[in-house]
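Reader question, answered in our methods column.
A reader sent in the components of a multi-part assembly and asked whether the whole thing could be modeled at once rather than chain by chain. We filled in our standard form and ran it. Here is what they sent:
COMPLEX SIZE: two components
ENTRIES:
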Amino acid sequence: MMYLTRRYSFSASHRLHNPQLAAEQNERIYGKCNSPHGHGHNYALEITVAGVPHPATGMVVNLAELDDFVQRTILDRFDLAYLNDDRDAFRAAVPTTENLCRSIYHLLQTGFQTAPVERVRLEETSRNAFEYAGESEGE
Amino acid sequence: MIYLTRKVEFSASHYYHNPALSPEENRRLFGKCNNPHGHGHNYVLEVTVAGEPDPATGMVIDLKELKQILEREVLAVFDHKFINHEVRQLNGRIPTTENIVLTLWQLLDGKIPGARLHHLRLYETPDLFVDYYGGRARP
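And here is the structure of the entire assembly that came back:
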């Protein structure tokens, strides 16, 4: 078993706001992140696939295939976007980096067939990072 | 148990080619990496060993000694080499990051007195790295 990690970057804006809560509560919970016009980050995304190198190629995954999938499915969708506008991902969820990290993991799990995705790590800034590797049994 | 990590860097060139496949198939699979004159990377290797600190010295391993082992087993073999032609330890495997990690594990495993090789992380570029735990699942 071997773990190959590829790192990507994209820039996006968001506003942390839960419409089911009162304005004061939103402000108390999210602070500056609740600012009504949103704010942006340069996100760094790490995608890890697990497997054994294929005997013919020596690769766990062909990077061209992974790059192509990530470009079409993740970067084209989230790069230079206002995340709150993404109805599919954030209709019922606040676009925190936790939720974005989990959305990206599920997009890879359901759409990328070439190699198993082990985990997703998402840096919101150089000081905040989130990792998601699916739910283990019982969670 | 203490985990100690030492980092080394080496620069080397390689290209990807499987002689069992046709030139067209090689180009399709490996793209630009199939150029027979090779291309280079500044590789960064993180070597993590596990052990208990010696009561007399407080050290898992003398870093000076680990540095010498890495110079002998890694740098002397890979630094400023054309991996396909000069690193016989690859045993004809395609020098992908995955296969280089496997080779490095074979070169280092059992060579570190007083400590156990636990984990290798090899960066081909800052955006691509492979983690290997000797074939075990990530702890």
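What stands out: The longest strand of chain B covers residues 2-14. Residues 2-132 of chain B form a domain with the Tetrahydropterin Synthase; Chain A fold (CATH 3.30.479.10).
Send us your own complexes using the same form.
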